[in-house]
Each structure stands twice: as C-alpha cells, then as structure tokens.
Amino acid sequence: MSKIEFINVWKEYGPVVVLENLSLSVDTGEFCTVVGASGCGKTTFLRMLLGEERPSRGQIQLDGEQLRDEPGPDRGVVFQRYSVFPHLTVVQNVMLGLELQAAPLSGRLFGAARSRARELAREMLDSVGLSHALDRYPSELSGGMQQRLALAQALIMKPRILLLDEPFGALDPGIRTDMHKLVLQLWQQTGLTVFMITHDLHEAFYLGSRLLVFDKPRIDPQALQAYGATITYDLPLANTDKDTMEGIRQHVEEDVPRALEAAAN
C-alpha cells in the first residue's frame, strides 16, 4: 500500500521555526483535514507536500522514496483563490495539463491527439457538473463553478495526492454544501489521498476521515518564533466521540488564540 511519511521534519526560515519535529504516516485513500490557529504552519505543511518548499531537516517520503522537491502531476492542488486561466475557456483550462504533458515546448496538441484530450477534459468536466459550460470563460462562471473547474484541472492529470488549501472559504454556505458533496463523491470514486486545510471545524469533522490539529506545544514569550508547531492531535474521525470533538474545537478556537495573545502581551 502506498504511504506518505513525514520523518522528523523541521521547517525553519533563519531564526524563525515554523514546524518542528513533525512525524506522520498516511496511507493511500485517507482524507486528512488540517486545522489550527493562523500562523501555525498549515500552509507550509501543504507547500512541502506540493514540492514548493523543502524541509530544513528530516524527510518526506512517498512509498519509501524521498518526495521530489518540485510540483509534479502526481500531486494536484486547489487553492482558495480560483487558480484558473482567464483567457482560456473551461474545456481549454482542463485540456492544458494534458497538452503541456504531451507537448511541453509548444503546449499544443493537434489532430487526433487534440480530439482525445478534449474528450478526456469533457469527461472530467462532466464528473464535476460542468458539461454544460465547456466553452464559457472563467469570468462567466460563479464562484462555485470556478472551484469545480479548479478541481477538474487538478484531477485531469490523475494525481495520487490532492491538496486543498481552504478551497471553499470564499463560497456561500449553500454552494459550500454542494462542493462538500462533490469532493466526497470524487474522493470515494478515485481513492485519492487528500489533505485539506480548513478553518471551519464543522467542515473538517464532516469531510475528513482523519483530523490533524497543528499547534505550538511550546511558546517563549520573549521569542515567539523560537519554537515551531507540530501535530498535537491526530484522530480517526469515524471513532471520535462528540466530547472529544468539542474539546478540540475549544482548544483550536479559544485556548490557542488566548495563549498566543497572552504571550504577545
């Protein structure tokens, strides 16, 4: 079985410690929701998985081999801000990954190869509910539709890992509910390993099969950046009782901000 492992990972920027002594093992097909106070290294954690950042110490491994230090087609990503190309139509946005993979210099396919890429893109857009909007431009789409397009972009390359950085934070509640259902459906169909950052604990409990809570176990009031965050809770959500969930909610939303404010003052 495929496995992602963080082995004693640290991330530092000069004297600033963002993450410290992070160890984690995640099997294929897990849906890990990631929560924690602002500034506790959640996005840095995701950027290291994507390959945009390297650990200062320790290793990140995929199937026992060191994870490549650059983004690749085995890792798809969706951000909160819509990461689509405004000058391309919906279907062209999704085709682009296939075209760049097959023709990295020109970024264009022709003839039968282009027809095949368009058909694959159309099938992917159908799976996210955008088959009616193939020839529209992103400016003609609602926020929820643009996030559906971003998901299609990420999934067309058949990644092994899907990284979601607060993808639904800017959406209205009703649209968020629809996107929750879509993401769960796609996860169950594909068997992807998913890491999703969210500030909404209800969303984290609802979507995830496993909850990772990031926090700083040590705080020096005289040097707030001297110690980094790590995973303080790692819970399988299917077996977590309501009292434990409420304790986590209070810790993340109330106790941690209060401790950081007290240290700063």
Report strand %.
15-25%
Structural class, by secondary structure, is: alpha/beta
Mind telling me the CATH class of one domain?
Alpha Beta
With strands numbered from the N-terminus, the spatial order across the biggest sheet is: 6-7-8-3-9-10
Rg result: 20 Å
Order of helices and strands: EEEHEEEHHHEHEHEEH
User: What is the terminal-to-terminal distance?
Assistant: 48 Å
Model description:
- With 265 residues, this protein is of the alpha/beta class.
- It has a domain of 147 residues: Rossmann fold (3-Layer(aba) Sandwich).
- Helices cover 38% and strands 25% of the residues.
- The chain is built from seven helices and ten strands.
- A six-stranded mixed sheet has the order 6-7-8-3-9-10, with helices on both faces. Strands 2-1-4-5 form a four-stranded antiparallel sheet, covered by helices on one side.
- The longest helix has 23 residues.
Note the topology:
Layout: E1 3-13, E2 16-27, E3 31-36, H1 42-50, E4 57-62, E5 65-66, E6 75-79, H2 90-102, H3 111-127, H4 143-155, E7 161-165, H5 173-190, E8 193-197, H6 201-207, E9 210-215, E10 230-236, H7 242-264
Parallel strand pairs: 3-8, 3-9, 6-7, 7-8
Antiparallel strand pairs: 1-2, 1-4, 4-5, 9-10
